[in-house]
Amino acid sequence: MTLADNAIAWYDVNARDLPWRQPDTSPWGVLVSEVMLQQTPVVRVEPAWRSWMTRWPVPAALAADPPSEAIRMWGRLGYPRRAMRLHACAVAMTEKHGGHVPSDLDELLALPGIGTYTARAVATFAFGQRHPVVDTNVRRVVTRVVEGQPDAGPATTAADLVAVEDLLPADPPRAARASIAFMELGAIVCVARNPRCRICPLESVCLWRASGKELPDGPSRKPQRYAGTDRQVRGLLLEVLRHATGPVPRQRLDVVWSDEVQRARALAGLVDDGLVEPHGDEFVLAGDAPATGT
Fold first, then answer.
1. Where are the domains of the chain?
2. Which fold is adopted by the domain 230-285?
3. Residues assigned a catalytic role
4. pTM for the complete prediction?
5. Are 291 and 247 spatial neighbours (Cβ–Cβ below 8 Å)?
6. For labelling alongside 166, which of 39, 246, 257, 258 has CA 20 to 30 A away?
């Protein structure tokens, strides 16, 4: 059996029961999940995904609402520009693709804010195509099993895409199954710290396991600080705007953070990113109507 065969056999028995993996999940549901899962744990994404899909089951439903509603629904998932990207994608698909997620990789890449990973993931997981889908988890599995090294590099390279593509079966649907199986292995078995090698279906052929090399000391990536950062201040400002029933005067935003310079910088960043719109000395989420007379 090949690495892909072993990974698929393991996945068929051990895969997590996630809603976007159900056979009846639409390509739109897959795209939403992939955007939400960027830098956000599954446990936080699952309830947000269900709420999103209940409200906007098709792209046209989201496109019909202003982007401010996408930002509100995004809640505290973090990196709210992703909500704006999903809204922009919904508009583009409604205008150019008849309200459907395109299956062609180049057309997926042409959607607003959709990068190489997301486009390949949607083409693979939604349409059963044969593409190397490489995230941190997949790179870690391949680096350990095939290259015999304990950790992958900090970013996906062209060489990573080639290495993963070489492992995929020729049959597109089975290649898609292998892609999700490698990803799941990296997420719950071949984890960065304390990998569960004894239950890994690839242990017997893993070059890193055979080499006896130890994991490097300390975390493989330096944890990102959140408390006290501009990200935290941006989140506090957005929280006020999300729950407001109208334009928010600057004075209401001033009370959320005492450092005036940092608060002003965070607010300016939200405006520059298109998440917030200023109207005189009041502010609204992108797409919300300003107060009468402003």
1. 230-285
2. Arc Repressor Mutant, subunit A (1.10.10)
3. 34
4. 0.90
5. yes
6. 39
